[in-house]
Amino acid sequence: MIPSIERVSTLIDRPRIEARIAELGARISEEYAGRDLTMVGILKGSVPFLSDLMRAITVPVQVDFLEVSSYGGGMESSGVVRLVKDLSHPIEGKNVLIVEDIVDTGLTLRYLLDVFAHRKPASVAIATLLDKPEGRQPGTPLLPDYIGFTIPNRFVVGYGLDLGGYFRNIPYVGVYHPPEEDE
Ligand code: IMP
Ligand code: MG
Fold this sequence. Notes:
- This protein has 183 residues and is an alpha/beta fold.
- The protein has a single domain (9-155), classed as Rossmann fold (3-Layer(aba) Sandwich), CATH 3.40.50.
- It is 21% helix and 33% strand.
- The strands form 2 sheets. A 6-stranded mixed β-sheet has the order 4-3-2-5-6-7, with helices on both faces. A 3-stranded antiparallel β-sheet has the order 1-9-8, with helices on one face.
- The chain is globular, with a radius of gyration of 16 Å.
- The structure holds inosinic acid (IMP) and magnesium ion.
- Magnesium ion binds at residues 45, 71, 162.
């Protein structure tokens, strides 16, 4: 079923997202000055954030992608992370910046940090557009290095975030109100 956009209410509008990404880009450019930076976008949710963030960064960067799947297509994480598509290039000796749309339970990132650690990068940092710290699984006290916005424990869509594959193209972040909420 195609979900209705009428059920989405704005949480973070586009000007706020753009302003925040400019700040993050400036910070990352400063902190990676003189170092080799590889941005790794986690498909598919990170695409709008990555494409804006990379253009707000003034140091030379390389970009690669990796796809994982944890959600079964609904609003609850399945808790099982699966590598769907691996990187195209080795990251040994590289300064890796993982770019995520949102950190919720932290399971996806814990899995990725584990996978990457075996490949001997020079460093690994995490940039996420959104952080939902209340969603963290016990034992996964993960703190991203660069956070766009910290948000309450609601299911959000837009700006890359999806519900069953839809809504990624919405140019702002909104809360999705499921029909059950009306009852
Ligand atoms: P985690 O493994 O629970 O930290 O979740 C990471 C992934 O779950 C993200 O990359 C998203 O794809 C998805 N996710 C978590 N929360 C939301 C949400 O509120 N809306 C849409 N996707 C979400
Ligand atoms: Mg997703």
